[in-house]
Design brief:
Organism: candidate division WOR-1 bacterium RIFCSPLOWO2_02_FULL_46_20
Helix content: 10-25%
Shape: globular
CATH topology: Alpha-Beta Plaits
CATH architecture: 2-Layer Sandwich
Strand order of the largest sheet: 1-6
Order of helices and strands: HEEHHEEHEE
Strand content: 15-25%
CATH class: Alpha Beta
Number of domains: 1
Keywords: Electron transport, Iron, Iron-sulfur, Metal-binding, Transport
Radius of gyration: 13 Å
GO molecular function: iron ion binding; iron-sulfur cluster binding
Pfam families: Fer4_10 (PF13237)
Number of helices: 4
Protein name: 4Fe-4S ferredoxin
């Protein structure tokens, strides 16, 4: 089963307040590796017109981006507010 198929089984309740935020977009532009683009299993981070864009709505709350964003520590990460975020169907 592909990752996309597994993610389809989960339920998301999207909050209007993002729980992921890039602190300073200019620092992301200076980041050499841009590892957030390649390590997030839900592909929350995308490069659009030379800037990193965060689509927090599909976040699986794994915390990978908190660890991998270590060049500038430029990510504000917290769990979504109660009742929001992902609910896993199978655990």
């Amino acid at each position: 089963m592909k990752l996309e198929d597994k993610l389809f089984l989960d339920r998301y309740v999207v909050d209007s307040l993002p729980h992921l935020k890039i602190i300073n977009p200019d620092l992301c532009a200076m980041c050499q590796k841009k590892q957030c683009l390649y390590t997030c299993p839900a592909q929350v981070y995308k490069l659009e017109e030379g800037k990193i864009v965060v689509s927090y709505e599909g976040c699986v709350e794994c915390g990978t981006c908190r660890i991998i964003c270590n060049e500038y520590n430029n990510l504000e990460w917290r769990y979504p507010r109660g009742g929001f975020g992902i609910s896993y169907k199978y655990g």
